[in-house]
Amino acid sequence: MKSSLKLALGLTSAITASTAVSNVAHAEDLTLCWAAWDPANALVELSKDFTKESGIGMKFEFVPWTNYADRFLNELNSHGKLCDLIIGDSQWIGGAAENGHYVKLNDFFDKEKISMDDFVPATVVGYSEWPKNTPNYWALPAMGDVVGWTYRKDWFSKPELQKEFKEKYGWDLGPPTTFDQLKQVAEFFQKREIDGKTVYGASIYTERGSEGITMGAMDVLYSYGFQYENPKKPYEMEGFVNSDKSVKGLEFYKALYDCCTPPGASNSYMGEGVDAFKSGQVAMHMNFAFTWPGLQKDENVGGDKIGYFVNPKGPDGEQFAQLGGQGISVVSYSDKQEAALKYIKWFANKDVQAKWWSLGGYSCLNAVVKDPKFPASQPYAQTFLDSMAIVKDFWAEPSYAPLLQASQKRFHDYVVAGQGSAKDALDGLVKDWTQVFQDDGKM
Amino acid sequence: MLNRTAENVARATPEPLARKVRGISDKGLAWLFISPTILLLLAINIFPLFWAIYLSFTNYRANRPNEVVKNLGFANYQRILGDKDIWIAMQTTAHFVFWTILLQTLIGFTLAWLIDRKFRGHAFWTTIILVPMMLSPAVVGNFWRFLYEPQIGLFAYAISFVTRIPPTDIQMLSNVSLAPWSIIIVDTWMWTPYVMLICLAGLRSIPEYIYEAAEVDRASNWRQFWSITLPMALPFIMLAVLFRGIENFKMFDMVNLLTGGGPGSTTEVASITLKRQAFESWRTGYSSAFAIILFVAVFGLANIYVKALNKVKQR
Known about the structure:
The structure holds 2 protein chains of 2 kinds.
Chain A: H1 2-25, E1 30-35, H2 38-54, E2 58-63, H3 65-77, E3 85-89, H4 93-98, H5 106-112, H6 121-127, E4 140-143, E5 147-152, H7 153-156, H8 159-169, H9 179-189, E6 192-194, E7 197-203, H10 212-224, H11 244-260, H12 270-278, E8 282-288, H13 292-297, E9 306-309, E10 321-322, E11 326-330, H14 337-347, H15 350-359, H16 366-369, H17 374-377, H18 381-388, E12 391-392, H19 400-415, H20 422-439
Parallel strand pairs in A: 1-2, 1-3, 7-8, 10-12
Antiparallel strand pairs in A: 3-11, 4-11, 5-8, 5-9, 6-7
Helix pairs in contact in A: 2-15, 10-11, 10-19, 19-20
Chain B: H1 2-12, H2 15-22, H3 26-55, H4 75-81, H5 84-115, H6 122-134, H7 137-148, H8 154-163, H9 179-204, H10 208-216, H11 221-249, H12 253-258, H13 270-280, H14 284-314
Helix pairs in contact in B: 1-2, 5-9, 5-11, 6-9, 9-11, 11-14, 13-14
């Protein structure tokens, strides 16, 4: 009896001791929350260096894009401690700052001599600042991203297609520089037989559930002259959101959807777009730049078969592109803020940022992207740089979610379901957005 | 019986504990047994219901916990009842409920009537028919999404084979006119077996001697069906309609998986609108008011229906 008691006590002590040791070893483990996508895998690889240098372990919580906002906004709203670091979407910045979800980083940046002037200006405004264009920083620009286009270089270079295209449209078949040209190219390829297979013009964003159709339509509307508000009078939207130019832009997006997308592409976003391009269904493909490294490596459509181009110009020569990407923030409910700040300091380092780019992440550090070798470092690097120079972003207000839901509904109702006119959709959008800002007491 | 068990337990336990158990009345013991369930119900059903009623009168937003919560009176209710989009969602829901129930009842009753013939292998066919009902809605939704795919889906190819329309033109989930029907077809495929089971129970509860008496009176099969089978199975059919009606009124999973409410808002049923307001736009107070309106509507309609059902049963 005595010996079995001793054995039990011994075992219990051993288990307790080992648990305690393991707890000590992992006491400083940080959890980083982000979307489940290719750059996240690159970040896992990159973060191994941080663990080596600091002894701080890294855990990751990656959620698919379709649930990314729901999952992490719930986590932040419930003051959860799951995430010590979060790479949150650019539109969350207003809500996260005003609701106290993120730690303000100004003092930390000053102390560690991290200057926002060292980062691409658009990414600082888009991912870090709230209120916009004020030196109040809530995140470090982490993953630059922008909507651009890929095309099938191998199809575009077929002599018989080049000849036919030139005869029909009067200009050389190549990456379009205006939206009118883009539509002509898309029409040219729509339902064409290439290598014994029927192909289609373009894959564009039409997704209804989260943010897809808004990102796609805005990508076109900006270059047509759409503005969110009167630049001289904030929140005044009448005549800006629903201007004649905006109406033309939305009509164009619908025309592009009707004429030139693959059958059944009524709910298509990043994943569906990549699938359509990879499976050789489409000649052109609208998507965020983060998809490009994966496509470049693809055996069937990558390498010499793929080309990239910046979002085309609108009818008046204006040229903008929808900003994507995110900044990395410290969650204010985390008990490990010091360790999390250490990670941010490490991540801001030039060498780390250079490695981040080489692994497939998109660095926002000037020292990396303005390096003379950068444009030639990847076939898509120059297109990425050119695109980042012309970005615009959706509202980043604390009420971004209802603002986004309103545009999702209005755009999908018109573009995909064909209900009403473009003018009706944009007038309705002004009404919905006005209501949101009135509820917020901003109008 | 309960008393005796309590006494036996008390006798078999040590004196101080036995005294305590003996001291519990029947009513006390009954409360003791049901109290965990009641507490659970209060915690996860009743309290949230009253909390939602309270929130429905406020401007509360779950994503802004630090903001001052204002009492809005009936403003949320007024806004919902005056919102054109909400009424469109209610119409879509009504359309969906009507057609699914009609098709499921007709096909379900027909299948039950055929299965009730007890032909050779009827047990096997009953099992096969029941399979869709046993699948998870998530599996069914994804499976049908692939079937409906215009470029690779079997459904489009099958329709194309019959109609000679190119399969890429059969866009069940993207076409505004076809999308509502694509959901109705899937729901009917999945839940008709459930209606069939209830109808089968009704048909099997009809005593054989009534048919024998009808045959003695030389009643035709048609006459037997209209005068015996249908009236006697009617309470069961009505019960099936009630269950399916309540379920389909709050249908969410299939619509979300198949169309997400699209194209546009053509398949946006009330539950999808509610989810968008509550968990995407974070209008917690507003969506609570909408949830209460839906609850009252379902509860009220179900009560009226149950009264009608009781009348039919009494006949």
